[in-house]
Specification:
With 765 residues, the protein is an alpha/beta fold. The protein has 26 helices and 30 strands. The chain has a seven-stranded mixed β-barrel with strand order 22-25-26-27-30-29-28. The chain has a six-stranded mixed beta sheet with strand order 6-5-2-3-4-21, sandwiched between helices. The chain is globular and about 75 Å long. The structure holds alpha-methylisocitric acid (MIC) and iron/sulfur cluster.
């Protein structure tokens, strides 16, 4: 299964027929929608209206309110989420996927020594999982990208994304494909199964946020700084339920991959996705990546691949919210630590670091990842590495590069950029997620020392990169990461400050420079793609019942039709509770295909509101304190229902449905929070859980450690009708609280059946 590292030349052109068909129908569908709505349309609306599911009636959908059925063009899955998605697909009764789909092996490769050695280790360690993914892909007609081929979103941008298309992917950064003018949305595996099974994909019609970019980037400022600034403005939940559409002269002047970076990190503001209208930068990128035919087709329907001119001329009238950024004035930003929306302009960083006591010595600078490993990014960073050598500077921090794809890695190696980085002592890791998702064997991390790292990834939640809660991770552009790694100092401002070189002279780094696309074109010998069998009927998928990594799924139990009563509080989580807190990645990634084993990480990172401790909650049956998964297993064994309570934006971050399946599997009945992140709320619903929000946020404070929850009117569970819960406190006093929900009738049926998949299964019987 280990793919040959001696490559042959292969360039696949995917989906040409599909794109042709799409573009043929595009004008008709958009014109019809325009006529019906009787107004000009944004790009987002054009793509959404052009992708309504066959049975979906055309209406002027109410943004932020109406559930709408869509028909996405394709599905992408990465290995850590594909396992659960494909285990569900195997239970759907289908023999082949209804839309083109791919699997990408990128999350399970640990960065330790160097790209090749780490890849070889991963292939051995993950053999069982890779073999499973490969055989299921082969059986169901799914394209398979082998380990080493690259990170899902970079591979999608290079091969599948097309202007005006719509796709979903089992990873929150699927949104990266917005850089090529798509509507690309991150979902849980169960949603992907719906689409692969030929069913509609449901989404609440999003609100629209417009971002008008005027001026032009210059100097040290990079596309990343645009999204770092947007994150500061919108915060981690400001984009929830909305699609962000970027436009203006400043947008047109950005490279296609720069647009990809901006869309990628739109996940960090909770946006459903982000997109840009088709322009010359996209055409250049399509041609450079071997898709001239797609560019030619797109050119013919150009006007439908961007908003109507009236929309961009009067954006206030058409968007629900408008943000304006003047790129002439944009400064580089450094966001963090611990959250991607804590935005500090580089000129204020030294002061902020001092005030907040952040460690100022930069230990490691890491560039690359799905967010920032374009040719432009790498060449601009390399221009700084070259200067460091020429100016006799010794790079103070460690420096690592994780290329986004084999195509990028191969091309930058050919062009000497890897040699340049080697001269400043860099390590080049495999084309994979690596340190971005805790797959980083960082020496000494286990000591838990307070330290600073800076990277060009997108997320910097506590423990994410190296498992150390005291690592202060900052997010910046590859250029700023490289400059700060050379300086080894968080307080260094490369725009104004000097460094002292090995000869004791004061030197300044010049403004970085790079190339948008490689002058000699991209090259790759084996991109790492494997097409599925024409007819996979005879392919056998094996899952060893004794495996610790894979486990076939059992149906969840249907609702018994009764009110839930006497439910115990498992945990009241305080503050940030991301999917990394609910179902940690890093070492746990190896159990992503085994629901029972991965359930042992359930909520171990959540902070207990009564003690500020993590992974320590009261077992109400014994009065003793124990680890969250163990206490929940005790409730399950005793047949006692339980409830999880959380704060704002609960489930922020990843699309991993394990964060919803684990509580479901272990017997938690409801998750009650102040607010949810979109993907996680849907995942909970899909898995047959009750995802509820406090009608009155202050009721969060009423929840006490020994509380019992009695649902009073679950039997009347209906769309738009809040639920009532009686809280019984330890002293037998009571409080009645009202809980809101966003379930429609179909979603209530999922709850009743046990899960969405259990409903499909029942309907297929
Ligand atoms: C991430 O960036 O957090 C991940 C790992 O790519 C996740 C998916 C996962 O948990 O498998 C995501 O963003 O959806
Ligand atoms: Fe991988 Fe990180 Fe990108 Fe997620 S954000 S897909 S973990 S590189």
């Amino acid at each position: 299964m280990f793919f040959k590292l001696c490559y042959q030349k292969t360039k696949n052109m995917f989906d040409l027929d599909l794109i042709q068909k799409n573009y043929k129908e595009l004008s008709v569908k958009v014109e019809k929608a325009k006529k019906h709505l009787n107004r000009p349309l944004s790009l987002t609306e054009k793509i959404l209206y052009a992708h309504l599911f066959a049975d979906q009636e055309l209406k002027d959908f109410k943004r932020g309110a109406d559930y709408v059925d869509f028909a996405p063009d394709r599905v992408a899955m990465q290995d850590a989420t594909a396992q659960m998605a494909l285990l569900q697909l195997m239970n759907s009764g289908k023999s082949k996927t209804a839309v083109p789909s791919t699997v990408h092996c990128d999350h399970l490769i640990q960065a330790s020594k160097n790209g090749l050695a780490d890849l070889q280790d991963a292939v051995k360690i993950n053999k069982e999982v890779y073999d499973f993914l490969e055989s299921v892909s082969n059986k169901y007609g799914i394209g398979f990208w082998k380990p080493g081929a690259g990170i899902i979103h970079q591979v999608v941008l290079e091969n599948y994304a097309f202007p005006g298309g719509m796709m979903i992917g089992t990873d929150s950064h699927t949104v990266n494909a917005g850089g090529l003018g798509m509507i690309a949305i991150g979902v849980g595996g169960a949603d992907a199964v719906d689409v692969m099974a030929g069913m509609a994909w449901e989404l609440k019609f999003p609100k629209l946020i417009g971002v008008k970019l005027t001026g032009k980037l210059s100097g040290w400022a990079a596309p990343k700084d645009i999204i770092l600034k947007v994150a500061g403005i919108l915060t981690v939940k400001g984009g929830t339920g909305a699609i962000i559409e970027y436009f203006g002269e400043g947008a047109k002047a950005l490279s296609c991959t720069g647009k990809g970076t901006i869309c990628n990190m739109g996940a960090e503001v909770g946006a459903t996705t982000s997109t840009f209208g088709y322009d010359e930068s996209m055409e250049r990128y399509l041609r450079a990546t071997g898709r001239a035919a797609v560019a030619d087709l797109a050119n013919e329907v150009k006007e439908y691949l961007t908003a109507d001119p009236e929309v961009y001329a009067n954006p206030e009238k058409y968007f629900d919210q408008l943000i304006k950024i003047n790129l002439d004035e944009l400064e580089p930003y450094v966001n963090g630590p611990f959250t991607p929306d804590r935005a500090t302009p580089i000129s204020k960083l030294a002061e902020e670091a001092k005030t907040n006591g952040w460690p100022t010595k930069v230990e490691v600078g890491l560039i690359g990842s799905c967010t920032n490993s374009s040719y432009e990014d790498i060449s601009r960073a390399a221009s700084l590495a070259r200067q460091a050598v020429a100016k006799n500077l010794k790079t103070k921090a460690e420096f690592t590069i994780t290329p986004g794809s084999e195509q990028v890695r191969y091309t930058i190696e050919r062009d000497g950029l890897i040699d340049t980085f080697n001269q400043i002592g860099a390590s080049v890791f495999a084309n994979a997620c690596g340190p971005c998702i805790g797959q980083w064997s960082r020496p000494g991390a286990e000591k838990g020392e307070k330290n600073t790292i800076i990277h060009s990834f997108n997320r910097n939640f506590s423990k994410r990169a190296d498992g150390n809660p005291n690592t202060h991770a900052f997010v910046a552009s590859p250029e700023i990461v490289t400059a700060l790694a050379i300086a080894g100092d968080l307080t260094f401002n490369p725009l104004t400050d000097y460094l002292t070189n090995e000869a004791g002279e004061k030197v300044k780094l010049d403004v970085p420079s790079g190339e948008e696309l490689p002058a000699n074109g991209f090259a790759v010998e084996d991109a790492g793609y494997q097409a599925p069998a024409e007819n996979g009927a005879s392919v056998v998928v094996k899952v060893d019942p004794a495996s610790s990594r894979l486990q076939l799924l059992e149906p969840f139990k249907a609702w018994d039709g009764e009110n839930i009563s006497g439910a115990k509080l498992l945990i009241k989580a305080k503050g940030k509770c991301t999917t990394d807190h609910i179902s940690m990645a890093g070492p746990w990634l190896r159990f992503r295909g085994h629901l029972d084993n991965i359930s042992n990480n359930m909520l171990i990172g959540a902070v207990n509101a009564f003690s500020d401790a993590t992974n320590k909650v009261k077992n109400q049956l014994t009065g003793e304190y124990g680890e969250v998964p163990a206490v929940q297993r005790a409730y399950k064994a005793a047949g006692v229902p339980s409830v999880v309570v959380g704060d704002q934006n609960y489930g922020e971050g990843s699309s991993r449905e394990h964060a919803a399946m684990e509580p479901r599997h272990l017997g938690v009945k409801a998750v009650i929070v102040k607010s949810f992140a979109r993907i996680h709320e849907t995942n909970l619903k899909k898995q047959g859980m009750l995802a509820l929000t406090f009608a009155n946020e202050a009721d969060y404070d009423k929840i006490q450690e020994d509380d019992l929850f009695n649902f009073v009117d679950l039997k009347e569970f209906a769309p738009g009708k809040p639920l009532t819960v009686e809280l019984v406190h330890a002293d037998q006093s009571k409080d009645v609280i009202i809980l809101n929900h966003t379930y429609n009738q179909q979603q209530i049926e999922w709850f009743k059946a046990g899960s969405a998949l259990d409903l499909i299964r029942k309907q297929n019987l």
